[in-house]
Amino acid sequence: MNILVAKTIAEAEQWADIAVVVDVLRAGTTACALLHRGKKEVLVFDDASRADTFLQTHSQFEVYSDVAVKAAHKDDSPYLASRSEARTPALLISHSGTKAMLRLQHASMVLLGAFCNFDAVSSVLRSQKKDVLLIPAALYGVSDDVEDGLCVSAFKDYLQGVGRPQNAIAEFHNTIRFVEFKKQGPKTADKDAKLAFQLNSLPVVPQISYSKEGYGVCHLFGQPAPFQWMGLPAPQAEPADRMPQMPEGDGTASMPQTDVPEQTTATGKSAASTRIKSLFNDILKVVKEEKQELEQEASSLLNKQQPKTSAAAEPQSDDLLDKVLKKSAPAEEPEAEEPKEEKRISLSPDKVVSLPDDKEDVTFSEPLASAGGKRKKKAIVLFSGGLDSTTCLYWALAHGYTCEALTVSYGQRHDREVLAAQMIARNLGVKHHLITLNLPWLDCCSLVNKNKDLPDVAVEDIPNEGIPSTYVPGRNLMFLSIAGSLLDAVGADTIIAGPNAVDFSGYPDCTPAFFKAAAAALNRGTKTGVTEGIEVLAPLMRLSKAEIVKLGAKLKVPFELTWSCYAGGKKPCGHCDSCKLRAKGFAEAGVHDTSLD
How large is the C-alpha radius of gyration of the chain? Predict the structure, then answer.
């Protein structure tokens, strides 16, 4: 499964696999609230005039809208939706969210995701085999809706095993957008924001199906959309001799009960019987589809991991209901398996690293697929020889990338990091490029000018010190530009870097916003970018230093070969920001830093 992020409306509307629309503060969370409240009928419109026409003949619908509609309506408010009457049908229309939902009719499945249902959506996506396109609703509305982009990034990172959604929520709370919404938003702004940014507050997964009338029908994932709103005829009663055969007994233990009174229809069948049969057929359809998927997955796993063995075929039942009951029955205790061979990823002809058993933090999806087919999986790794960049290099190799490492010497006050980079690359058998820049104006930085004192502040005060004297003007901008040039020249399609925006010294070129802008520039200013697309990955961006250390330990990073200290020398100084943040990370991770031995 590949995880992609839509950059343009055209890209979103041409997508043919699974699409996830993210509208955090408005329609996405509102839809979750409506379904979580228990509503069975939720319709989605993207045009006010069409909604007004519909409401003229369907006055029973309550309306949630942030656009001008003639009918009486409530604001597109997740809080108001969460307090609505469950039995009343709802109609939802918004500036951007519902537009995104209704323009994706090429997609095989359209889901709605937000922070409020983060884990539920992530669980569904992990169970799918098709590629996923994450679509921020801001594409269809206001580009300043940064919350959608943050949530999309959080989904991508989380599904790839990197970062936590809580970090994205914390980042949004520090934005101007958050302040403006609280001050200038609707009367329910505080309550809406609290619901929208409370992780997993509405654990439902809305799915959008498209009716023949042009509107969307919002329903729970895995459940059929109400046929009366899909423009479909009601299920017809079948002759008695075509009814599914029921097992002996009265069936009360397995068939759903209904308190609908028996009403004889024109054909002599009861309405209750028709509804039960329809529900039964729906269950059989879902079970059949799930069975086919499970059989395909099991077959694939057996072919890859186990030798073929002969076994007696399990007796098959012809009873359809029996198959349904078997599907829902507890799984039998599996027989003991022989120990499996440890999974090993080849890094070079003579260097192998083993992935740990717990792969949650190191298993990532495949990279993006280009328009012309599968991507090459060749990466330029920005490589300083420090803890973060070395972890990134090991991460890239462990996940199948062919890597070339790029180190830039820009006049640092020592060459220990460069020597570390050369040694690690040589040990891994990775091609290493060392570029030297001579920019005299960089002596304004204490990381270059030996006559300037390096900062020495308490580790807890580092985030409050502002941009320190160790900031090298435009460093990552230069690095990414050089990496883009090298990528074009050697036929790579990915740049991997190790910036971190959690435990860091406040450098402006280590933030998600900067890397997002830089990636956009690379995709517009390079041959590969405009013809195939360049993927810029920063897998450590939202990890704490302790999480980076744990990831490095799982990837078997040789910490003793890495160098982080700003001062140089034979041993780390222990006083600079980099030393203190590194020590904090190892201490919190409970891992020994072998570079200190």
Answer: 28
* C-alpha of 370 from chain center: 19
Structure tokens at 249: 């007994």
363: tokens are 């298993």
Nearest CA among 417, 370, 376, 377 for reference residue 398: 377
Residue 289 lies in a domain: no
Amino acid residing at 488: D
> Number of folded domains in the chain?
2
| Cα separation, 475 vs 311, whole angstroms | 62
From the number of C-beta atoms within 10 Å of its C-beta (0-12, 13-18, 19+), residue 547 rates as: buried
Q: Is residue 70 included in any domain, yes or no?
A: yes
Q: Are residue 53 and residue 195 in the same domain, yes or no?
A: yes
Confirm whether 262 is domain-assigned: no
Among the listed residues 398, 386, 305, the one whose alpha carbon sits nearest the alpha carbon of residue 354? 398
Which pLDDT tens digit goes with each residue over 186-205?
889 889 999 999 999 999 99
Query: Residue 290: which of 333, 315, 323, 246 has the closest Cα?
Result: 323
Q: If we measure between CA atoms, which residue out of 408, 581, 396 comes closest to residue 501?
A: 581
Supply the range of the domain harboring residue 65. Answer: 3-228
Final residue belonging to a domain, choices 213, 228, 243: 228
Residue tagged 């041409």 (tokens): 14
pTM of the model: 0.45
Pick the last residue of a domain from 209, 228, 247.
228
Give tens-digit pLDDT for 298-321. Answer: 555 545 444 444 333 344 444 443
CA distance 154 to 169: 9
Beta-carbon contacts of 154 under 8 Å, excluding residues fewer than 6 positions away, are: 115, 118, 163, 164, 165, 167, 168, 542
Coil, helix or strand at residue 381: strand
